[in-house]
Amino acid sequence: MIQTINTVPYTDQKMGTAGLRKKTRTVMQKNYLENFLQSIFNTIPDLDKKSFLIGGDGRYMNKQAIQTIIKIAAANGVKKLYVGQDGLVSTPAGSHIILKNHLDGGFVLSASHNPGGIDGDFGIKYATSSGGQCQPSESDAIYKQTQTISEYKISDCPDFDLTKLTVYHCENTEIEVIDPYIDYIEMMKNIFDFPKLKKLLSSSFRFVFDAMNGVTGPYGKKIFEETLGAPVGSVINAVPLEDFGGLHPDPNLIYAKHLVDLMYSEAAPDFAAANDGDGDRNMILGQGFFVTPSDCLAILTDNYKLIPAYKNGIYGVAKSAATSMAVKRVADKLNLDFYEVPTGWKYFIHLMDSNRITFCGEESFGTGASHIREKDGIWATLFWLSIIADTNKSVKEIVLQHWKKYGRTYFLRNDFENIPQETADKLMADLEKKLPTLIGKEFNGYTVSEAYPFIYNDPVDHTSTQNGLIVHFTDGSRIVYRLSGTGTNGATLRTYIERYVTDKLLEDPEIMLETLSAASRTISEITSRTGKERPDIIT
Ligand code: VG1
Ligand code: CO
Questions:
Q1: Pocket test for ligand 1, best of 341, 364, 416, 418 (most atoms within 8 A of CB)
Q2: Can you tell me the distance from the alpha carbon of 93 to that of 183, in angstroms, rounded to the nearest whole number?
Q3: Which of 20, 278, 343, 494 to mutate to test the pocket of ligand 1 (most atoms within 8 A of CB)?
Q4: What phi and psi, each to the nearest 5 degrees, are found at residue 67?
């Protein structure tokens, strides 16, 4: 039976850089999830002809939320739902399932790399038939609904057992529990040379894949151990846990410290990769060596010919504005088209759909390609393994060779967290006004050559001045300022600092960027406005 429940709106359900992301306890409030879901369905016509995917990264409240989505979708007359077995699906595999089956969209329940648990975060990435997250015009329409919603529809059908691969019915909706792994693995086999990778992983090559207790555990086991022959135990933190075992499932030098420590120790294996909670981010490490995500994109692009799916040529490449210019140097050399977009993977979708790019990436540990419409942590890992299998070089040798050829872009992201929203908004507004006056001025020896807000117009509905402020210096260095759209504690100011050199290839990035980082603080007046002398997190 379908029930119509009266409700009152929540006014904070605006989607950010990657869907709706909130404290778990916020989402647990009465009708919070229901309102958001009904608001989405209110914007979609002809639901009786529409099919959606549901799954998540296994975090706290996933299972319950899936049952709620099923009941609300059924009450709204949705034709069919595909649900990942055990409620699991990684963000990249979800994108593939939507595209392969021509679904009308999907709900990936994840706050990505944010911690889980009742005191952690919860999130919903709402994807459309594009296979990627909805566009700003679509999230605006949904947000409007959330502000005026007065009722939602829900079925009283029972909870379904999602451990079995079977078909259920709720109202007129068919619910099929699907294997969330098989199609994704098949796609990877079609991109990479699996026999060659198998030779590497079943040799004496020592490999670790850290799933950080997120959803890529089972994917990693199936691909690296069962299919490619890596020794059992190569995939660590491989069981998706509701609280990620207390880990902050963000693959970077700070939150994956256990892995970094291993890679800088005597016992270091040859190669390690980590993925975030929902499997779209990656971190690549060699023995005593860390690859920055900006370099990762540049190096993968430079090596595209080694991969069967790309050997006959690729379209162009794109990066978010905040990402370093390293990939641009490769694009120039290889004569590939190059694009720069705002932060957030949704901005790459249009470039992929129009065959303008094949590879893209963000400095926030995201690399991917047009096989799907999300970034893809396992894809990046397989790509690195392919380069190693082909060249027989270590990670460090591969990166060093790249720097010798192209120069090195030192890059750091400084995050100032938990700033009162008003303070952060005022800082950015004042800085934007001040940009023209910076030109020609010198800060710690760096002279500003250009300063402007990043504006993106492709397609036109992406236009926004909220995409960051960019300051260029005469030596090619850059600073980008922007506010995070995924945080759940006040505002986070991110400053992205980069400096390009062709000598001094093996220095410490913090030392190489020290004076430029200090200049970034002077320009933004961060210390006088927030009292923060130093960033809270440097990645
Ligand atoms: C951050 C990153 C951005 C990334 C987004 C989603 O957003 O900076 O590059 O696309 O997270 O990543 P923000 O607005 O906080 O800077 V994930 O792994 O959630 O999908
Ligand atoms: Co993620």
A1: 364
A2: 8
A3: 343
A4: -60, -40
Q: How far is the CA of 159 from the centre of ligand 1 (A)?
A: 33
Q: May I ask the CATH architecture of the domain 2-180? A: 3-Layer(aba) Sandwich (3.40)
Per the annotation, the verdict on 449 as an active-site residue is no
State in Å: Cα 113 to ligand 2 middle: 5
53 has which bridge partners? 82, 106
Residues within a 6 A CB radius of ligand 1:
17-18, 112-113, 276, 280-281, 320, 343-345, 362, 364, 366, 484-487, 494
List the one residue out of 395, 346, 312 whose CA is nearest residue 126.
346
Q: Could you say which of 3.40.120.10, 3.10.20.600, 3.60.10.10, 3.20.14.10 is the CATH number of the domain covering 184-406?
A: 3.40.120.10
- Residue pointed to by tokens 């500003």: 448
Give the residue extent of every domain in the chain.
Answer: 2-180, 184-406, 408-538
Rg over CA atoms, the chain: 23
Please tell me the total number of residues recorded for the chain in this structure: 539
Residue 466, SS3? coil
Q: 423 CA to middle of ligand 2, Å?
A: 28
Do 291 and 402 contact (CB within 8 A), yes or no?
A: no
Residue nearest to atom 16 of ligand 1 (CA): 484
Matching CATH number, 408-538, of 2.60.120.10, 3.30.310.50, 3.40.50.10540, 3.40.190.10: 3.30.310.50
Domains 184-406 and 408-538 in one fold: no
Tell me the C-alpha distance between 337 and 330, whole Å: 10
Which of 39, 51, 112, 130 is the catalytic position? 112
| Helix segments in 192-304, DSSP class H | 194-201, 216-220, 257-263, 293-302
What tens-digit pLDDT sequence spans the chain (539 residues)?
Answer: 999 999 999 999 999 888 999 999 999 999 999 999 999 999 999 999 999 999 999 999 999 999 999 999 999 999 999 999 999 999 999 999 999 999 999 999 999 999 999 999 999 999 999 999 999 889 999 999 999 999 999 999 999 999 999 999 999 999 999 999 999 999 999 999 999 999 999 999 999 999 999 999 999 999 999 999 999 999 999 999 999 999 899 999 999 999 999 999 999 999 999 999 999 999 999 999 999 999 999 999 999 999 999 999 999 999 999 999 999 999 999 999 999 999 999 999 999 999 999 999 999 999 999 999 999 999 999 999 999 999 999 999 999 999 999 999 999 999 999 999 999 999 999 999 999 999 999 999 999 999 999 988 776 555 565 789 999 999 999 999 999 988 788 899 999 999 999 999 999 999 999 999 999 999 999 999 999 999 998 99
Residue nearest atom 13 of ligand 1, based on CA coordinates: 484
